[in-house]
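Example 4.3 (complexes with small molecules)
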Amino acid sequence: MLSCTLQVVDSLIGMIKALQRQGKRLAGAMLAVQILLLSPVNADVPPPLTGNFHQTQVAGYLSHPWAVVENPLGGWLITERNGTIVEYTHAGERLEIPLIIDGLYVDGQGGLLDIVLSDDFIESRRVYLSYAIGTAQSNYLAMGTTVLIGDSPQVQTLFKVTTSKDTPVHFGGRLLKMPDGSWLLTSGDGFDYREQAQRKNSHLGKVLRFNTDGTPHSENPFYTPEHTPESYIYTLGHRNPQGMVRDSVTGNIWLNEHGPAGGDEINLLRAGNNYGWPVVTLGEDYSGAQITPFDHYPGMTDPKVNWTPSIAPSSMAIYQEEVFTTLNNHLLVSSLKDRALYAVALDQNPMSAVQIFATINERLRDVIVGRDGAIYLLTDGERARLMRFSPLRDEGVPEHSLR
Ligand SMILES: [Ca+2]
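Answer. The structure with calcium ion bound is encoded below.
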């Protein structure tokens, strides 16, 4: 690690000498070297992962956004909690598309959540969505579809979880399309219903797998021809999973979930596995009370990464591009509470998380990788924005540096 750090210092000094020869301003680069030289060198200091980078704003004035996707034609589609899709076209035009979702429940963490474009989106304008429906006394996580044509597209619900709850929180809600066209949907424990994460007759605290017509996938581990609630279960024992991504190289599916106070996790999903909540956690209750004496339990799968104290992980992407060379084959994890982005090397065992883009100081709601290899981050809250991070190349003085 020491040699690695020294290599970085060497490369920065080399860069400064090159800049000097070109007669360019040195402030940013000098600062970077000073920080490295002044830092105590120890085995815990990771090498910078991103090098120097550009940070620009792509979109602003977003109200409680949850998810962003890139249009294959160019541009962006962003969901807002109140049921609106904000679209930035490839021409830079901003459109606000209010959806009609029967029974949409907007409160707390409930509302319009995730968005996935159909494979033929350019021709069809079809999207798939997750959202909360119902009332304060009885609400559900649901998945549906619509075509983004006309003023107020009507959303058709295709699936809803069988278990209602009376809390406005812990919906989960991340939607992932599998290669066979079926869907994975994360479902949270509803906060007050943690014990249901272990019950196969409840859809709370699960990852569910179903077909586009809303029927359970026939290869599910607890499938029954009667389509009982357990037929839908892909994995169980989750708290509030909000990030889920499939590695297209290995086929692995990675999930992150909020723990209580501590015990945030990244898990590698295997159909039928039980991820422990609330029997096993490395966190404790918000009150400080112990939830369980177990940090391992026979038959339950340990997380690959544990964060204690919590970072509140919100979303996840896999970086498999060459634009940020050293980020290749890393998970990217956005966090709310920690106001930061983390990178986790997939070929590392045990896995560990490294903070990247250290200039970020906002609650992050979503992270995606653009077709241009840049990293796009959606911030959280009432006046949120979409930001683009790209490497700083040949021209100009570094604006930002270090991880
Ligand atoms: Ca767990």
